[in-house]
Specification:
5-stranded parallel beta sheet, 6-stranded mixed beta sheet, alpha/beta, Hypothetical Protein, Haloacid Dehalogenase-like Hydrolase, Chain: A, domain 2
């Protein structure tokens, strides 16, 4: 309820905040700042939903945000999966038919290592380092198999994440497209690219959340830094790139906030909460 006589600003209309993690909310060491937990609690008290939006799996995100996981919507696997609590709100899985051919194409290219990302578990077949360690970073539930072919029918496959030993831009993004007709290949990090259904995207996931929860784009804020965040930013009127974002991401955002090293996302959320309190708005 708004105090009579005061005009509610666009900033104070926000009911939903989504943020990328690596390179955006996490600091340059890849650490989640503890300050996010009281901020998420305060957002919840104000009726504002908070959503980490990441290429990580649900189990990893739930563990990372465990102190506030029940107050959080999780956009997982670059938008292929959305969960609130343990309820699945949205799943955009790959068809099983082309997966074997995709895995074979990845296997044939030196320096590429696939991860089969299911709705509940991730699967790897390569034991080489540093791939093995890096795969277990974003995938807490990670199962090692002799061959990923064994996992194709185990559970819905959200995406195939590909680790590139040198550079994803120079390796996977160049050699894989001919094998991916009707699918999407997204650059998601210096060493990572992701293969998903053509419509799987963080932005599409946000649009589904907006549809299910009755939210308008101008009630939504998003933060990002990389190419896989473009859809996320475009789905939210109040889009913000961090200072360290890729130039195309900065160009697509409505504004730029301080870098992840300067905790720009935390500062912006804190400013929103101060303005909400200043306006004396109770949602």
């Amino acid at each position: 309820m708004r105090v009579r006589g005061k005009r509610r600003s666009g900033f104070c209309m926000i009911k939903f905040i989504a943020t990328d993690l690596d390179g955006t909310l996490l600091d340059p060491r890849g650490v989640l700042p503890n300050e996010i937990f009281p901020l998420v609690a305060r957002l919840s008290e104000c009726g504002i939903l908070f959503a980490p939006a990441s290429g990580r799996q649900y189990a990893n995100l739930k563990k990372l945000f465990f102190p506030v996981w029940e107050k959080t919507i999780f956009i997982c696997e670059n938008g292929a999966l959305v969960r609130q609590g343990d309820k699945t709100l949205y799943l955009n899985a790959l068809s099983a038919a082309p997966i074997k051919g995709i895995l074979d194409a990845v296997r044939r290219t030196e320096g590429l290592f696939p991860i089969l990302c299911g709705a509940d578990n991730a699967y790897i077949e390569n034991k080489e380092e540093p791939f093995r360690t890096r795969a277990r970073g974003p995938y807490s539930n990670c199962i090692e198999l002799q061959s990923l072919d064994e996992a194709i029918e185990r559970e819905p496959v959200c995406k195939i994440s590909v680790y590139n030993a040198r550079s994803a831009q120079e390796q996977g993004m160049k050699v894989l497209p001919p094998f991916l007709e009707g699918l999407k290949l997204t650059l998601s990090g210096e060493h990572w690219c992701d293969i998903s259904a053509a419509t799987a995207d963080k932005g599409e996931a946000v649009k589904e959340i907006q549809k299910q929860l009755g939210l308008a784009p101008d009630e939504c804020m998003a933060f990002g830094d990389h190419m896989n965040d473009l859809g996320l930013l475009r789905a939210c009127t109040h889009s913000r790139a961090v200072e360290n974002a890729y130039p195309p991401v900065r160009a697509a955002a409505a504004g730029v906030v301080p870098s992840n090293a300067e905790y720009g996302v935390l500062k912006t959320i804190a400013a929103l909460l101060r303005e909400r309190e200043k306006e004396n708005i109770h949602v």
